[in-house]
Design goal:
The complex is a heterodimer of chains A (about 260) and B (about 270). With about 260 residues, chain A is α/β, with parallel strands linked by helices. Chain A contains 9 helices and 10 strands.
């Protein structure tokens, strides 16, 4: 195999793959025949109406829930047999109020078995790019919502992980801070190319951040659209005014609001 | 990010003193009324001594009072310490194993229904006049509130933090020490403040049922000698002792949970 062919294959082989995954809670079907893929270094977003079961998709990956039917593969191995590690960022920041910022940021590393000093040494240099320099020894209650969310993201990305899972990470922020955080996350992602899956109901956020978007129907959630966002990286907020982007946004909204089935 | 990192706000001690002023005023008012009634109603001091007389007699007998305070204090602290240690061990057991919780919890509830009046003499009968029966009785009255406080505290762990740790594949022990235990601290200290007041009463009661020394036995002797002034002097001492212990638990809580009283900026 030539190097080029190998690269091509690596690019087209999905790292994460859902095949016909379903999930019910009692008599209520939440996920119905979900099939999707996330490729290496790709930013994939799942948009859907509130209560559609978006978060359930992530909870299947973090181990908080088990799939009822279908299969989930990571690097072609079933999830249960795979040694994959996901770095998960929950909806609310889930910072520990009793731990200082630096200790919150190193939590994932320490749980993975790294000693406190080594974990600090890894996290410390990232405080500057995350806009948290000088706040290492603060408690979470002393920080603003946007800063707390950045701490949560810092805690998420420093973990040794194969993939990032972001569950409506900016949902609790005010509109201005949210836009700021989206722009900032976009820059960070462009530098690192984490394989990432984002859950959101914010269509602009989805378009701005993603390479590919899956649109979910209301419960029971099915994938009703898959949309590629061809915008080049790095992206700027101004790119959102681009006609092709506006078309995509309108298309997704149309699908969400007036579901053609 | 315009805020500069700055020092934490100093603890608000002067504010605490100002906050205590109404309580101090109420206590002084109560004592003044009592004094006036005892002085001018014609009631005999052997029935109701005036607070001034209680203080004077207490001062005259200060050496006896002090000598009897130490055994009560050590019984309180030893009993409370044992109670805390056992409550912690059981809280961990019950948090990790539901069946243990279901098996033991009803027993502990029943232990709270036992009338101390009946149990105290029996415990003294079984274990003699030494420290052991006091420790047991103090533990009996303080164990349950501490256990409930801890269990409730563990349960109060933030669901998001719990799920986050699961996603990090943290072990159950890891989750316990990283999240459940710190989450229980505010509950623990709330329980501690209540239980420490029970502890002093428990120790005095145990001594009352039989002891060589201690405020409880001092109160019993003073009563038998028709000295209500000395009974009340000992009561004042025990109240003072309880207040000091209570203040220490408040202080400990303050020191153990520094994140609860840091500067809270209003906006970024």
């Amino acid at each position: 195999m030539t190097l080029r062919a190998m690269t091509l294959q690596a690019m087209t082989t999905p790292r994460l793959e859902f095949r016909g995954v379903s999930k019910s809670f009692g008599a209520m079907t939440v996920l119905d025949d979900i099939s999707l893929t996330v490729n290496d270094g790709e930013f994939v977003t799942i948009v859907g109406p509130s209560g559609a079961g978006k978060s359930t998709i992530l909870r299947l990956l973090t181990g908080a829930e088990k799939a009822g039917g279908g299969d989930i593969f990571f690097d072609r191995k079933p999830l249960s047999e795979s040694a994959v590690s996901f770095a998960f960022m929950p909806q609310r920041d889930a910072l520990m109020p009793w731990s200082r910022i630096i200790d919150n940021a190193t939590l994932g590393l320490r749980v993975q078995g790294m000693d406190w000093k080594a974990a600090r040494a890894i996290v410390k240099p990232l405080f500057e790019p995350f806009g948290l320099a000088g706040f290492e020894n603060y408690y979470p209650a002393q920080l603003s919502g946007g800063m707390r969310q950045r701490v949560a993201l810092l805690r998420t990305v420093v973990q040794k992980h194969d993939m990032l899972l972001l569950d409506e990470p900016f949902g609790a922020l005010d509109a201005l801070t949210r836009t700021q955080m989206q722009e900032w996350l976009q820059t960070m992602w462009a530098d690192h190319r984490w394989t990432a899956m984002l859950i959101t109901h914010d269509v602009r956020e989805a378009v701005f951040l993603s390479d590919r978007i899956y649109v979910l129907s209301p419960r029971p959630a099915r994938i009703i659209r898959e949309i590629r966002v061809p915008l080049p990286r790095p992206r700027k907020l101004a790119d959102l005014a681009d006609a092709s982007v506006r078309d995509i946004e309108a298309d997704i909204l149309e699908t969400l609001l007036h579901r053609p089935t | 990010m315009s805020r500069r990192p700055s020092a934490f706000a100093p603890s608000a001690l002067p504010a605490a003193i100002i906050g205590a002023l109404p309580a101090i005023a109420a206590a002084v008012g109560f004592l003044a009324l009592w004094e006036l009634y005892a002085d001018f109603s014609g009631i005999r001091p052997s029935i109701l001594p005036a607070p001034s007389r209680v203080l004077a007699q207490g001062w005259i007998n200060r050496q006896a009072l002090i000598d009897n305070t130490w055994p009560t204090l050590s019984a309180t602290l030893a009993g409370f310490g044992c109670s805390l240690a056992v409550a912690f061990v059981f809280s961990v057991l019950m948090d990790f194993a539901r069946p243990v919780r279901r098996a033991l919890f009803p027993l502990f509830v029943i232990s709270q229904t036992l009338p101390l009046v009946a149990i105290a003499p029996l415990v003294v009968l079984w274990f003699g006049f030494g420290l052991v029966p006091k420790i047991l009785l103090v533990a009996l009255v303080t164990f349950f509130p501490m256990l409930v406080a801890l269990l409730q505290g563990y349960e109060a762990t933030d669901k998001d933090i719990h799920e986050l740790l699961i996603s990090m594949k943290a072990s159950r022990w890891r989750i316990f020490f990283l999240a459940r235990l710190p989450s229980a601290l505010p509950y623990f200290f709330a329980g501690l403040r209540i239980a420490i007041t029970y502890a002093v009463v428990g120790a005095i009661f145990a001594e009352y049922a039989g002891a060589a020394k201690g405020l409880g036995i001092y109160i019993l002797n003073a009563k038998n000698n028709f000295r209500p002034d000395l009974v009340l002097a000992a009561v004042f001492v025990s109240a003072g002792l309880t207040l000091v212990l209570f203040a220490i638990t408040v202080l400990l809580g303050h020191l153990a949970m520094p994140w609860r009283h840091t500067e809270r900026p209003t906006s970024p």
